[in-house]
């Protein structure tokens, strides 16, 4: 059985630009914004649908989708009723980012992973809405030397799984290629060239791109399993860590930086949220 993992964010979806950025503001957090429901959801749905249709036409049996944008909000961004019947979502409370639970629900050896709706990391130039998980307070997050944002977290959680394609803002591809240089990169908007196509225009680009990527499966590589993980989380200027008296992991807090070590990526990613609990706004 061929299982495809799809990780969807939304800032990098087709059709969402500076001029209509309210489209990615989830209604549960921004009840006065109507564009998320009236327009934004259809943008990321179109992108995810293109991936699913291409995957199914290439013989994928089972699709597991993690809709991670505004994790903590109950309602999905992707309109699930528009997707093919073999698409399932991870069972998570309010779509919470629980990486061990996410990894545990997938096959031991999924066929591949696709990231879609992806934005660039904080600090990348010519990017739409660049941020690292959430900036502020996060300035950067490194695992074994790679600046990791949403793409990196997901691909590292599924280490050793062939990374098939990244779809999103042109500037998001740098992170994807640092994780796996052979990943197919499909652009749906480009700030540098001011290319702002509609979801209807990018649908066939995504569909064909994912099909080509799957045809080239034998050349796809995975981010490899790591024997040891060294993590570093840096905060923006107005925040700092308030170190707890004691904590059960190996690491330290130094002002705006926290470092920790773990023996595997799942633990490293899970500790991220434990460390994150100690972020304080500077007085
Ligand atoms: Zn997002």
SSE diagram, text form:
Blueprint: E1 3-8, H1 35-57, E2 62-67, E3 87-89, H2 99-105, E4 112-118, E5 138-143, E6 146-147, H3 150-157, E7 163-169, H4 173-179, E8 184-189, H5 199-215, E9 229-235, E10 239-241, E11 250-254, E12 257-262, H6 265-276, E13 279-281
Parallel strand pairs: 1-2, 1-4, 2-3, 4-7, 7-8
Antiparallel strand pairs: 5-6, 5-9, 9-12, 10-13, 11-12
Helix pairs in contact: 1-5
This protein binds zinc ion (ZN).
Structural class: alpha/beta
What is the annotated CATH architecture of the largest domain?
A: 3-Layer(aba) Sandwich
Number of extended strands: 13
General shape: globular
Residue share in helix:
25-40%
What does this structure look like?
- The protein has 283 residues and is of the alpha/beta class.
- It has helices spanning 35-57, 99-105, 150-157, 173-179, 199-215, 265-276, and strands at residues 3-8, 62-67, 87-89, 112-118, 138-143, 146-147, 163-169, 184-189, 229-235, 239-241, 250-254, 257-262, 279-281.
- The protein folds into two domains: 3-219, 3-Layer(aba) Sandwich (Rossmann fold), CATH 3.40.50; 229-281, no CATH class.
- It has a six-stranded parallel beta sheet, sandwiched between helices. It has a five-stranded antiparallel beta sheet with strand order 6-5-9-12-11.
- Helix 1 (35-57) runs parallel beside helix 5.
- The chain starts with a strand and ends with a strand.
- The mean pLDDT is 97.
